[in-house]
Amino acid sequence: MRFIFLIAAWLISLSPVTGKTITVNKTGPHKTIAKALQLAESGDRIVVKKGTYYENTLMINSPVTILTTEGAIIDGGGEAKDILIVRADDVHISGFSLINVGVSFLEEAAAIRLVHCKNAVIEDNRIDSCFFGIYVEYGKYAKIRNNTIRGSFTDEASAGNAIHAWKGEKLTITDNLTTGHRDGIYFEFVNNSRISNNISQFNLRYGLHFMFSNDDVYEHNLFKDNGAGVAVMFSRNITMKSNRFIHNWGGAAYGLLLKEISDGSIEGNKFIQNTIAILAEGANRLKMSENVFKLNGTAMDIKGNCMDNVIKRNNFIANTFEVVTNTKSNLNHYSENYWSNYSGYDRNRDGFGDMPYRPVNLFAKVTNEVPSATFLLHSPFVRLMEIAEKIFPQFIPESLIDDLPKMAAYEFN
Amino acid sequence: MNKISFTIALDLLKNKAILIFGFILAFLGWGMFLLESQPEKTILALLQVTLIILPLVTGIFATVYYYNSREFIHLLLIQPIRRSSVIRGIFIGLAGGFVFSFLVGIGLPLLLFYPTLASLYLIIAGLLLCIIFTGIALWVSTHQQDKARSMGIILLFWVFFTFVYEGIQLLIMYQLAEYPIEQPMLWSVFFNPVSIARILVVMQTEAAALLGLSGAIFQDFFGSLKGSLIAIGVMVVWAVVPYFLSRFKFIKRDF
Q1: E strand spans, A237-337
Q2: What confidence score (pLDDT) does residue B66 get?
Q3: The domain defined by A21-391 carries CATH number 2.160.20.10
Q4: Domain of B231, in residue numbers
Q5: What residues in B contact A294, CB-CB < 8 Å?
Q6: Whether the predicted interface score ipTM is above 0.90
């Protein structure tokens, strides 16, 4: 009996709270969203009809659903003020076009700002020409899905981020498109969150940027043509899986920048045509496996302060430089990788070369010491030097070797 | 004059060695494009061919040809022809023959399979290298009586320009790494036609971004149209000066 009662109670708690629906329409009775928000109580739905609403600083103080199915536009009027400010839990915003939030160096104004709230759902919105797109401040369990955030900034110093999270827990950011901002997605002090299936391209600085954020996962994202693909800094336990880093190309561009991070994993990613695919400084205990490095300028630049990283079962195909480092010692483990520049043989037919492979190229080392020597790239003299070094290794780190180089490339999907 | 160069060019094209050379170039040029799926890599391989093999073969072969046709030259000199027309004929004939085999062997596949600015620069650079090394070979040959010595000298020129010069540059850069040496290094490139050719082409490929901050000075110069025109101009000077030196000697020389 008691059991049935419990189940009944549970079922009741599941049934949706039925609030009233307030319709905002240009022709009345409620002509502005601000008015509707004043009337709204907990659990209400605000449906916004077609039209352009010139409003900003819209405070959402109770758990409501605010949506449009007709593509209503909210124009912030170019002022440096937030358009929507969420201060209540369980708020759901969907379907809007939010445009024109002005740039200010004092206020970080955003199209949608979440402040101290839980369970917000932000989905299917289009955000154009806004200083910041979606700004999360002390947010928990927020879901940011399927939004398109476009900026048209040209100067990094006066640009905002598309999705900016400052202090957060368990955020879910999926299927968004971010472009033309400073950072596509920015995380600072955000833990246990998941970023997946997003596209981040043509952003001025980073496609995705982690600072002081731990235990996060990002997977199946595409980072293309950003100033640098992803920067992970001062963070622990980040899982980076099945992302694509494509054509982050330029004088100071990287696919993935690792700085002071530890205990993460980098698996199944594709790095194609980046100036430097991975730049690691102070990266420790990372597991890198099943990644593909193809046609990059430098596949991996691992500085001497990186320790105990395991680089295993990756494909290195047609990169100008495979591994670059600034030290003679080696504290990382390379094994079972496929290197397209390897020219050894495999007598016992176990699929691995009999001779160990040294992925550090002499010229890469030279340019590391004398950067201006880069203009000798592809010169016959350098070619000669490399051949000599391959036969009689003298300068390149002796312990930086892959002792089981794979003979043929792995077939990763 | 035109008749002389035409005769020499035709004679060269009938020559077995030059045929084989042209065939090897064509084999490399066409073969690499047909085998390799990435044209960006192919153009770098063809760049190596152009920088290493082309000057060597051109220099050596022009020297050999000059000495082997000495009797023909003497015969020409007996005729009432100006000496300057004879030497000009020889220069244009030799250079024309090499340029032709380069254009067919490497230029044509480049234009067909990878019609980009980088290819265009590679063709221009290769063409000029042919002319430059023909000029140097003539300059050496007109100054030397002995064929073997001329061959030695032209080989030295080749080794110096393709390998030694850049080695010295690297050495200097190592020694003076603390100083702002990019600008002097940029100027020093102009004293080596092979370096100019290489940088011209590399700057047009995506590898240019690899040069980074320290390569910015090179990128600013060679990456701009004005800079590349100046570089091509310097190569033209390199092509013309040895020829005029040899012409000067040829006119004055007692045969």
Answers
A1: 239-241, 244-246, 254-262, 265-267, 270-272, 276-284, 287-289, 292-294, 298-302, 310-312, 315-317, 321-324, 333-335
A2: 92
A3: yes
A4: 2-252
A5: none
A6: no
